[in-house]
């Protein structure tokens, strides 16, 4: 089982939101990042990724940081390709919703539990 240490979690929380956005766009693409953030404009994540950009609304920042943390956990354990598939696939731990949808709906505890189930090899639901 691979889990993020407290130091890694602290480092992720300390990243500027532009860097968090840039990393998520690089791994998930702007459309999926916009969707998990609850943005209506799929170009918004690329704008947030600019160092000189106005930061998104506070709840969007929370979603982006949470998504990045979960991404890092899944990618560290399973690789980036599996992590991307995990984010877009229906998940029994999320009532068959995708993690993208659950994050947009602020169901953070459910998503964190689904990630932990994957890490613990109890993903079957």
Write a structural description:
With 125 residues, the chain is mainly alpha-helical. 66% of the residues lie in helices and 0% in strands. α2 crosses α3, α2 packs across α5 and α5 packs parallel to α8. The longest helix has 21 residues. It is globular, with a radius of gyration of 14 Å.
Task: Write the topology of this structure.
Blueprint: H1 6-14, H2 17-28, H3 30-37, H4 44-48, H5 58-78, H6 80-88, H7 99-104, H8 108-119
Summarize the amount of helix as a percent range.
Answer: 55-70%
Main pleated-sheet profile = none
Number of helices: 8
How much of the polypeptide forms β-strand, as a percent range?
A: under 5%
What is the CA-atom radius of gyration, in angstroms?
14 Å
What structural class is derived from the secondary structure elements? mainly alpha
Report how far apart the termini are. 18 Å
| Cα shape | globular
Mean pLDDT: 90
- Taking pLDDT < 50 over at least 5 consecutive residues as the criterion, the unreliable ranges are 1-5
Element order: H for helix, E for strand? HHHHHHHH
Let me know the number of strands.
0
What brief labels describe this structure?
125 residues; mainly alpha; 8 helices; 0% strand; disordered N terminus
Compact summary:
The protein is mainly alpha-helical. It contains 8 helices and no strands.
